[in-house]
Amino acid sequence: MKNILFLIFIASILSVQCKSKEENKGPKIQKEDQSGPEYTSAYICPMHCKGSGSDKPGTCPVCGMDYEKKEN
């Protein structure tokens, strides 16, 4: 009788541990695509606004901030 209770106890612990491992996987975080002009131009917006960036100094058409020279 004690052996059966011990086996049931061990089985319940193992099933709880297996379930917790599945829950911890969570969603994978995707990295931002850094291939647009807001990342690759010589002058970039400090806020990396979508579609901003230029090869000449100027201002961002989206937020109005001055472009900064990109450091490589």
Q: How is this fold's topology laid out?
A:
Blueprint: H1 2-23, H2 37-40, E1 43-44, E2 68-69
Antiparallel strand pairs: 1-2
Which key features would you list for this structure?
72 residues; 2 strands; rod-shaped; two-stranded antiparallel ribbon; mainly alpha; 36% helix
Fold and architecture overview:
By secondary structure, this protein is mainly alpha-helical. It has helices spanning 2-23, 37-40; strands at residues 43-44, 68-69. The chain has a domain at 36-72. It has a two-stranded antiparallel ribbon with strand order 1-2. The mean pLDDT is 80.
Number of strands: 2
Determine the N-to-C terminus distance. Answer: 72 Å
Question: Which class do the helix and strand fractions yield?
Answer: mainly alpha
Q: Point out poorly predicted stretches.
A: none
Instruction: Write the H/E string, N to C.
Output: HHEE
In helices, the fraction of residues equals 25-40%
Rounded mean pLDDT is 80
Helical stretch count?
2
Question: Order of strands side by side in the largest beta sheet?
Answer: 1-2
- Proportion of strand residues: 5-15%
The main β sheet shows up as: 2 strands, antiparallel
Radius of gyration: 27 Å
| Anisotropy-based shape | rod-shaped
What's the short version?
36% of the residues lie in helices and 6% in strands. It is mostly helical.
